[in-house]
Amino acid sequence: MLRLLLVIMFAPLVSGFITWLKNNLRLRRGPGIFQPYYNLAKYFSKDEVVADSASWIFRLTPYVVFSATLSAIFFSATPNGLITLLFIFSLARFFLALAGLDTASAFGGMGSSREMFISSLVEPVVILAVFCLGLSVNAPSAVFLAGAALFLATLAETARMPVDNQETHLELTMVHEAMLLEYSGRSLALLELAAQIKQLIFFLIIAGLIFSNLFLLPVIAILVALVELSMAKMRLFRVVDFVAFAGVLAVLSIIMSVLGA
Amino acid sequence: MELLLLLGILTTAYAMLTAKRMSALIANFRLQSLLLFIMTFMEALAHGSFNLYLVAALILALKVFLIPLALFRMLKRLKVDEHVGFFINPLLSLAISLGLTYLAWVFVRQLFPDSAIGFVLAAAISFAVMQVGAMIMVARIKAVTQIIGLMVIENGIFLLASTVTGGLSLVVEMAVFLDVFISVIILGVFVYRINELFTGIDVDQLKGLRG
């Protein structure tokens, strides 16, 4: 229970920290580190507008996504729970994609199709990295490679820079944002919080389970910020190569862990 | 730490295989050389030997700065477009090099059956880096990539020498560096000539010379 509260409390802070760091490195004065909290408070206090054409799926999705993400926290502590966790995330993603299609706006459908495309690529990588975690008893290089593969997969899963861009609402580049475009008020707050929690869970898996050192958490956040600063967003079909690279690292980590190096 | 550097060198080699633009290819080569420099420098710190410091400084000067700069200048003067050009697409070359990496491991295991796992890993990684370099030479179209592939092979050989034998003697090392630098210059001249003769640096066009 304490873990649940801690993750919910700190998830927006991680997002705020990454944004803050990026703005500082660019020598810009961005929003403060606590801005995600203010945003959430603002969304929660606002009224919600739902499109006339939206069905019950659209209304239900924020609650499904949020509760699925919350329940994922309980499975994130052991390697055994990780497969369950991935399927829970798939459930959330399934509903989010449906909701994107539901309002029949062009952006939502585009976002859904892209999200499913990317997730179908990323899922095998994450699963391979997790398998390696189960296999490797005493194989430092396998652990490192699995961590690197999972880091790249995390960039894709959490809508970070080479794959998606969280900062923009430019129609051609949106993936995750495109699906949330029709949401407002409390639903938007729940979906954003869910995305932040998912991000924190992935960071926790890399830091806590793979490298078994929770102090790596800020290091991972800093790495994400640096990657976002130094890379441009890739063309959608270039993402295949990016994820394939992560997949090669994951396969290599499996080979290493079988060989015991 | 050494393990991290080794895996970093292997990862940058793979990243070079996926690179679609020349500048990304050269930047990755630069990163790989930088990792090699850090590794040699740490070894020099551990042994406190002057020769190793000198070799590390040579790596830094030649492979991190001079050769990439020369390659960038060459690209600028040739006015070719940024695309690397593939005979084998990035995904397939990654898959092939993954198999080659496994083969390198098996080969090293056969070669040194009784050695420690860390040593086998280092030797296997250096063989894998050489194979990736050969892949870059064989499976990419532009003549400039041939030069980069050769440099990657050279990085692998250096890695092998420093892990298996604890580094070559200084004279050999200096001669190798001189060779590498001169080969870059000569190959550069070659590429200019190819560009003038065939109005392009696609190696594919060279097949026309066959009788």
UniProtKB/TrEMBL annotation, chain B:
It is found in: Cell membrane. Keywords: Cell membrane, Membrane, Transmembrane, Transmembrane helix. GO terms for cellular component: plasma membrane. It is a multi-pass membrane protein. The keyword Phosphoprotein does not apply. The chain crosses the membrane at residues 50-72, 84-105, 117-138, 147-168, 174-192. This is Hydrogenase. It comes from Candidatus Saganbacteria bacterium CG08_land_8_20_14_0_20_45_16. The lineage of its organism: Bacteria, Bacillati, Saganbacteria.
